[in-house]
Design goal:
The complex is a heterodimer of chains A (137) and B (315).
Chain A (H helix, E strand, L loop, with lengths): L1 E2 L6 H12 L6 E6 L2 E2 L2 E2 H4 L5 H7 L3 E6 L3 H13 L5 E6 L22 H21 L1
Parallel strand pairs in A: 1-2, 2-6, 5-6
Antiparallel strand pairs in A: 3-4
Chain B lengths: L5 E2 L1 H15 L3 E5 L3 H4 L2 H6 L4 E3 L4 H13 L3 E7 H4 L4 H10 L5 E5 L17 H6 L5 E3 L4 H13 L4 E4 L5 E2 L16 E4 L4 E5 L3 H14 L4 E5 L2 E3 L3 H10 L3 E8 L4 H11 L6 E6 L9 H7 L4 H12 L1
Parallel strand pairs in B: 2-3, 2-4, 4-5, 5-7, 6-7, 10-11, 10-13, 13-14
Antiparallel strand pairs in B: 1-8, 6-12, 9-11
Helix pairs in contact in B: 1-8, 4-6, 9-13
The chains are: A alpha/beta (137), B alpha/beta (315).
Chain lengths: 137, 315
């Protein structure tokens, strides 16, 4: 699992080269594509797009899914496990802080934990979301 | 002076890997596009399925070695000392030392005797960089025979380890029999003496022996210690030298900061030893390109320089 901002690092691409060179079809990686890193939007800090084209040009099998949809993720993993002679990168399109109104896409929560009050509020929202979800089952 | 029998420690490394490969199916070897120079190519030819060419991507080589270690393999990762340490310090720090991964980093072309390659390739900080890392064992074999024995011990002793040898042929100091009981962390008294102790490592042990012989002719009795393990340092032996002799000189083909000289001075200072002490090595500077002997002369690592330093210290 790699963060999107993390792929600024050169070593990621050394590993990306190595994995295709050695035809590592038993390797599947996720990239958490939420467009945020500490200094701001990934495209402002050091452009990453096109993430898909970069990985496929390194020889990876690339699948892009909604990172908040567990069924899509399972399907992607099943597809990855059938892949021969190349590793798979699953791009998870995500929203940082998903499900908590004041945290969503808020860079202030990238590397700083919520305080006591924020935690209580966040848990309240998540509990409510969970109850609503359970009611639909 | 009688002609010395020479052997290349790099050949010794490559040949020992091949021997060990037969005994230990878990040994795997990684290299970063320098296998012909580091001699890991010998292993690659014999055991291609256990050799990983990683290309000019040292960071990935170290991390991959750590991954292989976590799966129970015994990885030896090799390249030149300059690329094997400074370039990949973070990967060694986190993936190898912090993780206590059973990774063996074996570097060749250490020190200034790579010569003409110049400062960019003359690694004189590697012992310091590796010594400061918790969990790391640091070795500097002095000849081909000792290289063989230490590589065997690296393979059979668990934990993160770094070893460095030079590029050039080196005089043979030991027979196989001499080193049967060699232990990591236990220095060797190569030649005993009562006036001064010359504690050397790697390529400089031979120079120290020469200096000791010359000094003997001039009535100075010099002990020579081969301190093949920089960490854990044989503190007992250092303190024994401080007690037995009137001065201590360290000699290393490395910066005087933080390597063998640094380690020995820390022991002496903390144990309150007042023995006169001097570190011979590269001063705080980058060196120029040249023939190894020219460089040893210019930067104060030659036998005459060792002799001069000892005499001055004993005055």
């Amino acid at each position: 699992m790699v963060g999107d901002g993390e792929t600024n690092e050169g070593q990621i691409w050394e590993a990306a080269s190595s994995a295709t060179h050695y035809k590592l079809d038993n390797l599947t990686a996720f990239i958490d594509r939420n467009f945020l890193q500490i200094d701001g939007n990934t495209e402002d800090v050091l452009r990453l797009e096109s993430v898909r084209d970069r990985w496929s040009s390194f020889g990876w099998h690339v699948i892009e899914v909604d990172g908040h949809d567990i069924e899509q993720i399972i399907d992607a993993l099943l597809s990855a496990s059938e892949q021969k002679n190349q590793p798979t990168m699953i791009i998870l399109n995500t929203v940082k802080g998903k499900g908590v109104s004041f945290m969503e896409n808020n860079i202030d929560f990238h590397g700083v934990p919520p305080n006591e009050m924020e935690y209580t509020l966040a848990m309240k929202e998540l509990d409510a979301a969970q109850k609503a979800l359970e009611a639909t089952l | 002076m009688k002609k010395k029998e020479m052997a290349n420690p790099r050949d010794a490394y490559g040949e020992t890997l091949v021997e060990l490969g037969g005994k230990h199916p878990n040994i795997v070897v990684l290299d970063a596009d320098l296998s012909k120079s580091t001699k890991t190519i010998l292993f690659a030819k014999k055991y291609p399925e256990r050799f990983f060419e990683m290309g000019i991507a040292e960071a990935n080589m170290i991390s991959a070695a750590a991954g292989l270690a976590s799966c129970g393999k015994i990885p030896f990762a090799s390249t030149f000392a300059v690329f094997a340490t400074g370039r990949v310090y973070d990967q060694i720090r986190i993936d190898v030392a912090y993780s206590e991964a059973n990774v063996k980093i074996f570097a060749t072309h250490g020190g200034i005797s790579v010569g003409k390659d110049g400062a960019s390739h003359q690694m004189i900080e590697d012992l310091t960089l590796m010594r400061v890392l918790p969990n790391m064992t640091v070795l500097a074999p002095s000849d081909a025979t000792q290289t063989r024995r230490l590589v065997e011990l690296m393979a059979t002793t668990k934990g993160p380890m770094y070893a460095r040898i030079g590029r050039a042929n080196a005089p043979l100091l030991y027979s196989k029999e001499d080193l049967r009981d060699l232990e990591i962390g236990k220095g060797l008294i190569v030649k005993d003496g009562s006036d001064v102790s010359i504690i050397a490592c790697g390529t400089m042990v031979d120079q120290a022996v020469d200096a000791s012989e010359q000094l003997g002719k001039e009535g100075v009795s010099a002990r020579v210690v081969d301190m093949h393990t920089i960490k854990p340092l044989d503190e007992k032996l250092v303190l024994k030298c401080a007690r037995d002799t009137n001065a201590i000189v360290t000699v290393e083909e490395h910066s005087v900061i933080g390597g063998l000289g640094g380690a020995v001075s820390e022991v002496l200072a903390e144990k309150g030893s007042a023995v006169p002490f001097k570190r011979i090595g590269v001063q705080d500077m980058f060196c120029e390109s040249g023939e190894p002997e020219e460089l040893f002369e210019k930067y104060g690592l030659s036998t005459p320089h060792i002799i001069k330093t000892v005499k001055k210290l004993l005055k």
